Amino acid sequence: MTGGSVRSVAMEAKAAVVAGxxxxxxxxxxxxxxxxxxxxxxxxxxxxxxxxxxAALIQASPPSDPSGNLPFALVALGGFGRGDxxxxxxxxxxxxxxxxxxxxHRPLIRRFTQDLYDSGLQxxxxxxxxxxxxxxxxxxxxxxxxxxxxxxLAGTPALFERFQARIRRLVQRRAxxxxxxx
Length: 182
Description:
Blueprint: H1 6-29, H2 34-60, E1 72-76, H3 78-82, E2 91-97, H4 102-118, E3 123-129, H5 130-139, H6 141-148, E4 151-155, H7 157-181
Parallel strand pairs: 2-3
Antiparallel strand pairs: 1-2, 1-4
Helix pairs in contact: 1-2, 1-4, 2-4, 5-6, 5-7
């Protein structure tokens, strides 16, 4: 994939995804296992997502923190987070931001999500701070499961680590509650 305008970047990404999926399908038809196919598809989609994020970052040029990290974390969820993306799965992503900074990132997020759609990846993208993500998990078991399987793709490691620590506490609390109620 080469550079260019963001719109051409999305079209290049789409072509790469179509070609990559065809190659993965061929490998499956030749006997590659479902597990290998899922891992290859995860790698293809991850490369594409990061490519599109880089293109959006170039256009939006958001501020970074003093360590040079992005002021958010891009997180893969569900099958994508597990590294086990199925051929017809949608793409579950969380953009984890510091509380109150959502508006600051709106132009970048809009460009990035538009490029994801234009590339044909069918993303389901949510933008949340750590507290909001965890509260959503408590309200919805599907969200809870997706967040437990989260994997950082890019962005601030410390923000993702805070998120993971809080999710781990929720998991421990839920397990403790289940044991007490049994």
